Amino acid sequence: MRRVLILISACAAAAPFAAPDPALAERDRPSLQDRIEELQQEVESLREDIEDLQEPVEEFDLFDQCAFTIGVTQHGTWGGDVGYRFGPLGQSPRPALAMDMRGFGRPQYDFLAFPGEEPPSIECNEDAGEEFIDTSARATDERSLTPQPWRSR
Amino acid sequence: MSALGSRSRRLLIAVVVCGCGGAVVLGAGGSAASDVQTEARAAGEDSPWPRTKALRPNLRALRREVADLADQVETMERSAEGYEDWQACLKYVPVNEQGDRDRQFGYLYDDRDGTGVGHMDGLAVDRRRRPGREDYLFIHFRGAGCRSDSPHPGGTAEPASAARSYRRPGLRRQLRMLERKAASLERRSQRLETISERFDEWESCVSWVPVTELGDPDGRFGYLYGPTAGPWAYRPALHVDRADWDDPDYMFLALVGGDRPGRTCQDEPGEAID
């Protein structure tokens, strides 16, 4: 009887090492399973959040494709002797802004602008990727005539 | 002894029978669990998850999903970081209209078409008024050199574990890594949301100012420019173009009439001024 009891004990003790224990696997699996299901739910919710972000983020790109800078310089000074003639007889010179897209010097300002024809949300990015060429050309310098795409500045 | 031996034998048989029964029961239980695992998930057709509860296929699907989301987030981050870069480069310049719109008063201007010298309005950078009282804040992009590379969210370094070992980690470790990646994606998407809200707030406060240059860059006609007492020349200058008959040269972006993103914005988003 004692030998039988020892045998049973030994078998019981050796059982976990002798073969994969389904009970142990079952005990482990639910926690992994639960975590996976939880993560799947999180990922689904994350996907929705990220899809919701697509449109707002496209606004950056639209802006990026449509905006460029225009070189502008102010000529004349406030309170100075030289400037644009202002007043009834032009006796008081004042400064004023003018385009500065010619020559090699840098303009004082690079103002953000969009093409004058239409608001950017409509069709300014129709030709996205193509270089914007100012066809209203008053100046002759091709480099200056090409307002710089916003990102390339 | 024989009675004891007989009892022992019966006990041994009982143990074996119980063991077999247990094995059968456990086996059946295992089989039942397996059935549960292969049970089809009640999921929509576009569900990315496999129709099994087996761990490995589900982990594989999770890896694919997380990688796909990471790609999307990375693409959006490039746009958002571009915006943040140039937003940091903007400087607001106060500009006022000089002269009146009816051309009764202002700069001297001559079209040299026989009508003689008249008055014309124009635009000038004008810091004489108090902040918020200017007609416009034109938006000057300070150009290259002002931007500093913003740090890559989460850092640019690869996880150290990736460099240490190329062996696929165990399921638990894989899952832990995916959980971390998902948490990181969550943070990154929240950051994107914050940036897009900031952009929306800024953009909805910006107005389009129709601007045209009047006068000839070659000096044949235009605004009179020169010293008070001395010879003058014709020069071009900018003015706000309210004419209905032609498009302006450009729409300058500006904050109009004291508008400030995040505080007061009078106009609808992207509205052109009258």
How many domains is the backbone of chain A divided into? 2
- Bin the helical content of chain B: 25-40%
Order of helices and strands of chain B: HHEEEEEHHEEEEE
Overall pLDDT metric of chain B = 80
**Oligomeric description of these chains:** heterodimer
Strand content of chain A: 15-25%
Question: Helix tally of chain B?
Answer: 4
Total strands of chain B: the figure is 10
Spell out the helices and strands of chain A N to C: HHEEEEEHHE
Overall, the morphology of chain A is rod-shaped
Shape of chain B: rod-shaped
Instruction: Report the sheet-strand fraction of chain B.
Output: 15-25%
Helix percent of chain A reads 40-55%
Descriptive report:
The complex is a heterodimer of chains A (153) and B (274). Chain A is α+β, with helices and mostly antiparallel strands. Chain A contains 4 helices and 6 strands, in the order H-H-E-E-E-E-E-H-H-E. In chain A, the strands form 2 sheets. In chain A, strands 1, 4, 5 and 6 form a 4-stranded antiparallel β-sheet that branches. Chain A has a two-stranded antiparallel ribbon with strand order 2-3. In chain A, a hairpin with a 5-residue loop joins strand 2 (82-86) and strand 3. The radius of gyration of chain A is 37 Å and the shape is rod-shaped. The N and C termini of chain A lie far apart (93 Å). Mean pLDDT of chain A is 73; it is low at 128-153. Chain B has 274 residues and is an alpha+beta fold. Among the domains of chain B are: 1-41; 86-150 and 190-274, no CATH class. Chain B has helices spanning 2-38, 55-87, 160-164, 171-203; strands at residues 90-98, 107-110, 117-120, 122-125, 136-141, 207-214, 222-227, 233-235, 237-240, 250-256. The longest helix of chain B has 37 residues, at 2-38. The model of chain B is unreliable at 14-44 and 148-165 (pLDDT under 50).
